[in-house]
């Protein structure tokens, strides 16, 4: 099931995407109250092409894992860490499909980082690995945008990772994806810059859910970013970045100056 958050000019709502977006037959069927509990259909149905897709969730927090692909760890000048490297992005960094990634004036290099994102479906803590998937609602595409120069000068990553619009999410949540081995690609102006598979994750989705839930309580709608593969690089104003995860879809965002 594909669950989207959308607006047709009225208040934002959740809906189920039915039909084929690729063939232009998709519609969004509104649901209430939300996808984190049993829901009913409202009767509202809109062609996908006639609504604006929003970020599929507004998380209380975005938990991220650094250097979770060995090739990316090495391209950043180090060896893969033995344990997951956990950091946070603020909820205010979230952007939706088609929203611009805004480059802050104080940074001279802002990088794309395409990732698979996990959306938590229910309140949980201390989740064992063998039950980790039971707390997952589904998956979406993410771009862990990073001001690389600020990351280097600050010595920690909060400012570099936390600017407004630095966490595009979308286009929707896919609830039936097996995340163990799917293709992940990032393009910049249509040119492939990252091309990998989630089977190369050093710490897989169940391990990450268990690890993060030992550190803090996870709430419905929280987002976990699983890490980015090699090929990260800078974006410039006027370019377009797109993250595709097979089985989900493509998240596309223009890049502008702030």
TrEMBL record:
GO terms for molecular function: acetylpyruvate hydrolase activity; isomerase activity; metal ion binding. GO terms for biological process: carboxylic acid metabolic process. InterPro entries: Fumarylacetoacetase-like_C (IPR011234), Fumarylacetoacetase_C_sf (IPR036663), Rv2993c-like_N (IPR018833). Residues 61-255 form the Fumarylacetoacetase-like C-terminal domain. Residues 1-56 form the Rv2993c-like N-terminal domain. It comes from the Bacteria. This is 2-keto-4-pentenoate hydratase/2-oxohepta-3-ene-1,7-dioic acid hydratase (Catechol pathway). Pfam families: FAA_hydrolase, Rv2993c-like_N. Keywords: Metal-binding.
